[in-house]
């Protein structure tokens, strides 16, 4: 009886999670006439026209390209600077290390809305407005602390004897770090990179504020369509489904690290 | 593990410091700068002292937004934390079903926030959404663009849908770390289900639950995108939370002074509450370790 009860609870909860997503997919496969005309639980006339619209219209698919460009830049940047810092936090104690660690966390706590206007002015004044690098830099605000915290957690698990042995064998710090240490924490780097990618991918407020045309992310393209008159629900739904794809593709591989990543590596 | 004292480690932290200084400290100083000055355009600024802070502190608009924000955060914490624990207790421990649950539960967490808004916007519509249509057919009047209660319920259910899995996954991670011996001992003592939860599972989950509360508090307190897409802050101002109000003020009306004063107080409130949580969290860590 008890096992059945558990299965029912989980079944109901998962149903609650999946229904809205199913509805989005359902709508993305219908024509607009069908969406507005007949109410049906599954598409009566299956169509991929909505997806075709997005993948052939450059004002749509460039949104994805822009998002992917700045997200990738941000991920590379965040991981690159976070690696040495995380190593320092995991191996050494130095003046102000604890305060610095907490201060990094405060950046994760900062509401993006507070930063929207100053970012807009800062990047406009240095001529970076509407470029991919501006969004990538802005997103380091929350991704660098995240990467440092996650990587530090993984590095603490590597025994210190390995470092010491390598130094005795005459490795320089740089060579040791790249040749020996990084392969040891490869999975940690993967997890940190995934979360940097994800948090940059889901963010809208900053990326929308910092771009207008050339670097406009897909999220902003979608809101534009929402506010326009004569909504194209099918295309909107298809665009939504396509933004879920990157997360859904790798979700299986990171399933055991999801909690860790969201909790800044503290689980 | 005792760490070696090494002041040169600062050089390893330097890149992070420079980057974060550029992306956090400079913008923050701009905000501080605006909050104490007034402008008549043409880039001419005058010292205004604490005028804007006075203005904001006596403005009903800010207090209303703060009240709505506090109510929202309190409600979603009150729902998501118990529900998340409950779900975690019912999750399969290992095997195929555990993986399946983890994958499906993680899915909402990885959806872009504006798409979360879009999903619920569509889902709740009376004409084309499954939820709105069903409610309408069984005779419940439901319209989140007109009715304040419906708008609040939609925003709250959306947040529960979006983030309960995070609480559940964290609680699940805490539960996984309990050795089987504890449960066996409880069985020998003939402890009730409640006693097992109260004296074994809850204390073991305390650490991760603190993180869950901290994260959910922080993120719900700065929520912007999801309610903005669904309700646009309306009907009227009914779902205008702090971030939505701030963006309206700063980027919509370009009221730099008041917006900056607002920003600073907003940030300080979050910082203060988060610091309390963080201290509790670190102390819990120490007691366990």
From TrEMBL, chain A:
It comes from the Bacteria. The keyword Cell membrane applies. GO terms for biological process: transmembrane transport. Its main location: membrane. Residues 64-254 form the ABC transmembrane type-1 domain. It holds the Pfam family BPD_transp_1. Keywords: Cell membrane, Membrane, Transmembrane, Transmembrane helix, Transport. The chain crosses the membrane at residues 7-25, 68-89, 101-120, 132-155, 176-202, 233-254. The keyword GTP-binding does not apply. It is found in: Cell membrane. It is a multi-pass membrane protein. GO terms for cellular component: plasma membrane. Belongs to the binding-protein-dependent transport system permease family. This is Carbohydrate ABC transporter membrane protein 2, CUT1 family. It comes from Roseovarius lutimaris.
UniProtKB/TrEMBL annotation, chain B:
It is found in: Cell membrane. CDD domains: TM_PBP2 (cd06261). It is a multi-pass membrane protein. The keyword Iron does not apply. One of its GO terms (cellular component) is plasma membrane. One of its GO terms (biological process) is transmembrane transport. Pfam families: BPD_transp_1. PANTHER family: GLUCOSE IMPORT SYSTEM PERMEASE PROTEIN GLCT (PTHR43759:SF1), TREHALOSE TRANSPORT SYSTEM PERMEASE PROTEIN SUGA (PTHR43759). This is Carbohydrate ABC transporter membrane protein 1, CUT1 family. It comes from Roseovarius lutimaris. The lineage of its organism: Bacteria, Pseudomonadati, Pseudomonadota, Alphaproteobacteria, Rhodobacterales.
């Amino acid at each position: 009886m008890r096992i059945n009860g558990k299965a029912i609870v989980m079944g109901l909860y998962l149903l609650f999670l999946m229904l809205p997503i199913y509805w989005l997919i359902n709508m993305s496969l219908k024509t607009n006439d069908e969406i507005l005309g007949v109410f049906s639980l599954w598409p009566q006339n299956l169509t991929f026209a909505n997806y075709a619209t997005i993948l052939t219209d450059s004002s749509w698919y460039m949104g994805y390209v822009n998002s992917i460009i700045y997200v990738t830049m941000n991920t590379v940047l965040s991981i690159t600077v976070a690696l040495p810092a995380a190593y320092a936090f995991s191996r050494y104690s130095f003046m102000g290390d604890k305060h610095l660690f907490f201060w990094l966390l405060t950046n994760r706590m900062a509401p993006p809305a507070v930063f929207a206007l100053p970012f807009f002015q800062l990047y406009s004044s240095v001529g970076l407005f509407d470029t991919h690098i501006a969004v990538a830099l802005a997103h380091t605000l929350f991704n660098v602390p995240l990467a440092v915290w996650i990587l530090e957690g993984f590095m603490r698990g590597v025994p210190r004897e390995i470092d010491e042995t390598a130094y005795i064998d005459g490795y320089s710090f740089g060579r040791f770090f790249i040749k020996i240490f990084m392969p040891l924490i490869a999975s940690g780097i993967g997890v940190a990179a995934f979360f940097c990618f994800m948090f940059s991918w889901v963010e809208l407020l900053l990326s929308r504020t910092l771009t207008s045309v050339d670097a406009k992310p897909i999220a902003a393209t979608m809101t534009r369509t929402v506010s326009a008159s004569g909504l194209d629900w099918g295309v909107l739904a298809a665009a939504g489904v396509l933004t879920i794809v990157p997360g859904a593709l790798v979700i299986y591989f990171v399933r055991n690290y999801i909690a860790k990543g969201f909790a800044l590596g503290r689980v | 593990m005792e760490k070696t004292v090494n002041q040169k480690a600062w050089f390893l932290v330097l890149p992070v410091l420079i980057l974060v200084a550029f992306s956090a400290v400079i913008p923050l100083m701009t905000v501080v700068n605006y909050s104490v000055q007034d402008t008549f355009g043409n880039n001419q600024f005058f010292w205004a002292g604490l005028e804007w802070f006075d203005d904001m502190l006596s403005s009903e608009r800010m207090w209303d937004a703060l009240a709505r924000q506090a109510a929202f955060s309190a409600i979603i914490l009150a729902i998501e934390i118990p529900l998340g624990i409950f779900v975690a207790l019912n999750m399969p421990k290992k095997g195929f079903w555990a993986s399946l649950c983890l994958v499906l539960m993680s899915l909402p967490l990885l959806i872009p926030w504006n798409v979360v808004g879009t999903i619920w916007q569509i889902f709740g519509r009376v004409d084309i959404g499954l939820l709105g249509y069903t409610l309408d057919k069984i005779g419940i009047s439901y319209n989140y663009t007109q009715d304040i209660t419906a708008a609040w319920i939609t925003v709250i259910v959306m947040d529960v849908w979006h983030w309960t899995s995070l609480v559940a996954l964290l609680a699940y991670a805490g539960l996984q770390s309990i050795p089987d011996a504890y449960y066996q001992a409880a069985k020998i003592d003939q402890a009730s289900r409640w006693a097992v939860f109260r004296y074994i599972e809850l204390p073991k989950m305390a650490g991760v639950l603190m993180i869950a509360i901290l994260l959910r508090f922080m993120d719900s307190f700065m929520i912007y995108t999801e309610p903005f897409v669904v309700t646009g802050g309306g009907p009227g101002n009914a779902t205008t939370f702090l971030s939505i109000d701030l963006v309206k003020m700063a980027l919509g009306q370009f009221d730099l002074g008041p917006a900056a004063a607002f920003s600073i107080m907003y940030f300080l409130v979050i910082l203060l509450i988060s610091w309390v949580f963080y201290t509790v969290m670190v102390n819990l860590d120490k007691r366990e370790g």
